[in-house]
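Z., the sequence and structure:
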Amino acid sequence: MIKIIQETTEYLKSKGFEHPEIGIILGTGLGQLLDKIDISKEVSYNHISNFPTATVEFHTGKLIYGTLEGKSVIVMQGRFHLYEGYSLTDVTFPVRIMHALGIKKLLVSNAAGAVNLNFKKGELMLIDDHINLQGGSPLAFKGVEKLGERFTDMSAPYDADMNSALENIASSNGIKLHKGVYASVVGPQLETRAEYRYLKIIGADAVGMSTVPEIIVANHLNLPVSAVSVLTDECDPDNLAPVNIPEIIAMAGKAEPRMITLFSELIKSL
């Protein structure tokens, strides 16, 4: 793993990905942030040695380097998921690469379903904690202790200072920002009525198919991380309509400008 990380890092450095300060992972339907970035370099995932390739049609699959609010950033335009057939090691490999390149903070976004029915589609949720329902760990491999503490503490997986700053930014800009617990499942199928009831019982406020593996690895690397969910649908088991993926993508795009404000203002303050 160490050799592979070094190989990929050197390749990206040779392409001009030098001294990034902040990493950003963009979730499903969330790509408008790129319009605010002064892009200097971009590489398709399938051109990066040892990188997985995004297979989901609404995940573009590029690693982008540029400047946002005066800070150098690396942006993952499209992420990887277990449901694509990748391992948890594959899914989290880009986090290790961004860390090896030098990022000091990581920001993550995703599209999620609102399990807490006080939360409405089109709103945002700051992730305060999570529940891993993906059936595994990205740290469960031989030699992980060479990359960080095997028994990584997860008592406070999301950075308190960045989360507090995001709440203040939301308040100052009139953005409704809930705070809650994100449950990560494998997918790609959506949940049944019984599963939504179960998620509510165990304390989830939102559910999605990503993010938690990346957060675990960020903590393994002692990399401060914050994450925001764009709530794209309401998961009411008593009034559950058939899933409409185009509507979910459209809702993510509609809500995204508020998420961009949060991330941009936070980056400005770091």
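The chain has a mean pLDDT of 93. The beta strands are 22-26, 38-44, 62-68, 71-77, 105-114, 124-132, 177-184, 206-208, 225-234.

Let me know what you think.
H.
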